[in-house]
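User: ATP-dependent DNA helicase II subunit 2. Structure?
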Amino acid sequence: MAANKEAIAIVLDVGPSMNNAPPGEETPLQTAVDAIKMIIQRKMFSESKDEVSLVLFGTPDTDNPLADGDSYENVTISRPLGVVDFDFLQQVQNDITPSNTSADFVDALVVALDHLVNATQGKKGFAMKRLILLSDLGGEFGDDQIEGIISGIKNSGTELNVIGPDINLDGDEDDDDSQRPGPSGAANGHQKARTPQQKAGEGMLKRILEEVEGECYSFSEALPALSHFQMRQVRPTPWKVQLEITSNIRIPVCSYIKIKDFKVKSFKKVYAKDEDAEIDNLRTYHKNDEEETEVDKEDIVEGHRYGTTLVPMSEDDKLNMKYKAEKCLKALGFTDAQNIKRHHFMGDNTHYVVADKDDETAVVALSALINALYETNMAVVVRKVYSAATAPKLGCLLPHIKSSYECLIYVELPFREDIRQYTFGSLPLKQDTEANKKYRPTDAQLDAINDLINETDLSQAVEDEDGEKTEALKPKLIFNPYFQRLYQCLQHRALEPHEPLPELSPMIANSLNPPQEVSAKCEAQCEKLKNLFKLEKVKKEDRKTGENMFKQKEEDEPSAKKIKMDDDLGGGLADITKAEVTEVGTVTPVDDFISLINQKDADKFEEASGQMQNRVEQLVTDSFGPQFYGKALDCLKALRQQSIKKSEPTLYNNFMKKFKDFLIEKGRRDFWEMIVDDKQALITKTESEDSSVSLGEAKDFIAEKVEAVKAESQPPAAGDDAEDLLDQI
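Assistant: Predicted structure:
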């Protein structure tokens, strides 16, 4: 296995000097704990295999293998070297407390280095070791081990990073404390001046950093850099294949992913109320019937609809019908690069295609192909089959030449069936017709849009440290705000499971805003656009309806002659022509029922419900065959729905029990079957708390078989009725 892991020892000062801060500001210890949590979160959410340990110095107790009663006192290995997890994060959140004991930061570095060396000894995969010291250097220290720690760091290949003091490694130390940011990173008038002990500690640490070529960051520098969550780091794996130009020309190549759409890890299986419980998915299959009968997975076969027929398709059938292809990267032809449009690019990734590094002949051959394509501005259209189990894909190889390397870039292309042709009308710029003159932009408007585009150009938007114009929002330096917010919520839920989700982090909110330099330059252009592109509110014309015309005529009359419509007739023309509903009629029974129960003068639900019940029975009885069944069923649906809404399920349930016997007596079993199919039976407790009917009782009520009544109680068939009527005529 390639060595790509990192062993990190975080060394934190919890002594008294780390717990002092002006009123209203965070102490250096609190700021340091925030930085450690950010380090752990970055490692955890990126699924890093790096291992981290935590060493505290300034603790009341001593717990390290080097302590002998005189040396390395008050230094504790709080967390041995290991992969980070939520337990580590919670330990940093809850278990780190300040103390009143000072300890030597040099002793702590020696203990941490010794732990790193011993913990990684015999383990494979570690490419480097790192010490991260977080302290304000306010405690006492000894200089007798300086040479030892310097040689130990160099010999073990360990890097040293310091977060806390602002040490100038490039020039003379600045003694003006008023101009220096303090340990918390805030340069303000409330920051306490450095003590002589801190100045001495900074001088000693500066010497160590210079000897081991270490780096030092203030909290104001480190916290913004650590506040971004990192994506999961994946070691690139080559896809080895032969690029087949012709049957006689084949070049061994390797393909590496250049860029790929990142999919966030699923967190469905990382939470359980019982931490020892084993989380597993359970999937069952049920029929679409009243009982929802469960079906075993072995008895299920996939089916595809062909018209009205379902054609079964077993796994063996799919395997036999599946298209079989062999792994390949085969050239289908060459074309001008201009024929491959940007909107033809497909897929969620692109690849670098390089020659096999162990084959010198392949390197020379592929280099000749790349340069020939570059000089002639051509591209290769290829057929790609990743493996025998995957479908063939169409793609192209484009030459890519840089000063340090050259390669081919593979991009997937669409098949003919994948292309969608959309036709859009052009802007009225060229056709100078009478209809277009109204919408044709003026030269001033076009110039204003061009100026806005130029001002929003990000390629030369910001200045770097040297004062030169450079690109803003570089893709390599931009983090996806969606993932940042997701990880922020996950770590908050892990640490505070019962608290609501936090507000959006200011860091994430700021990333959604354009650069200040660009916004400032666009203000003048935006004002110009407001002046050139006038926006007027268009008043919607009223439709010439009878009611509008009546109102207009009323407004034109003298006020003394106007009729007080609101007092006498209740409002507009619709209210004048509409009669008051007093009972459930036969023309619009549902509307009448709704109007009755919504009247404000009294609660008429029981009375309206009785009328609706009578109307349903009348419609079923008067129906010639199933002529009025649909209308009766609509009435029944409205009655059931409003009974639930008005918390009156008993009226409906009592009616349905009687109505069932009524249908059997009248020989209307076909309407009862419609009720069962439409699930308009009794109202259960799950639908209304006022109901006394259980779910089982409701199912039994529907499942009961309707016994056939005697033949003499059944009405004559529709055909017989017709013949009797003809005889009477």
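The domain at 589-728 is CATH 1.25.40.240 (Serine Threonine Protein Phosphatase 5, Tetratricopeptide repeat). The first helix runs from residue 28 to 45.
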